[in-house]
Amino acid sequence: MKLDGRTxxxxxxxxxxxxxxxIEFAREGxxxxxxxxxxxxxxxxxxxxxxxxxxxxxxxxxxxxxxxxDEDSVEATLERALDEYGGLDILVNSAGVTSDGSVEEVxxxxxxxxxxxxxxxxxxxSKHAVPHIRDSDSGRIINIASQRxxxxxxxxxxxxxxxxxxxxxxxxxxxALDYGPDGIAVNAICPGPVESGMTPVETEQDEQQLLDGVLxxxxxxxxxxxxxxxxxxSDGGRYIHGHTLVVDGGYLVK
Length: 254
What we know:
Elements (H helix, E strand, L loop, with lengths): L6 E5 L4 H12 L3 E6 L13 H7 L3 E6 L5 H15 L4 E4 L14 H26 L5 E6 L3 H4 L7 H21 L4 E8 L12 H8 L10 H12 L10 E4 L7
Parallel strand pairs: 1-2, 1-4, 2-3, 4-5, 5-6, 6-7
Helix pairs in contact: 1-8, 3-4, 4-6
């Protein structure tokens, strides 16, 4: 029980990587606030909500409908953690959206939408979480960036998405400098190709395209990323600050 008694807010907790992190945190003893704009998963194969999975496992969690582009909604979510559990130890910024298109193709509205969720969402949630996490003896902020934010895209044109995830990696380093002295370890995880609602695998061609980019014989799953978040959130991560932890099946080196 590496997170026994600690309280975590996980944004984007209904689907994909956020869902897997929330479920693992609960199994490690954390109290969860599951923050997402919708409670049901975007992945059709997920028959149960994240809340139902955690409760069936005997864990402790509540769901709070959250729009990370709305500051009042974010503030209410952080207050829910205080009301339910009396404090806050961990924030995981996992809410995110993707977008296709080069800089010639992407509209300003689409560019702004991606930055609003992926970058400003991290800022808003962290802004309202930090004053409470400061009171924790094991404060952690974990931002979900992407290997694309370090290297760029593969064979797809994702200008807005890549720019947003590069910004999250840079913001993470600055937040580590700003809040490390307060006892808050701030780090990012950069997942590689992971099957999810954002990256569905519906055909053999989809699967092969992802396999061609990694060194593993299997397509990464959200559950392959969750243990990295547990490490960063636990006592084992107390000496890790400002790091971008790549969990990508060898995508960067290939």
